[in-house]
Amino acid sequence: MKVGDLIAFRLRFMTEHDWSNPAIVLSQFDSVDALESSNLWVVWCDGLECIVDEKNYEVIYLTSTLRQRA
Hints:
Helix content is 6%, strand content 44%. By secondary structure, the chain is mainly beta.
């Protein structure tokens, strides 16, 4: 995941209907535990800052800063 990516996310055990609204990745979460923080991201979704944990959430990329421009 990279800053600027547009994603949707859900907890891994949720149903196909439980995806979030589109969210933009704002930053990587700063944590005292460097190993844990590498998997935590701050995203803006529905007017709130949320934390997405790549271990417990499934993420789909709607657009990505990694994509090549057409």
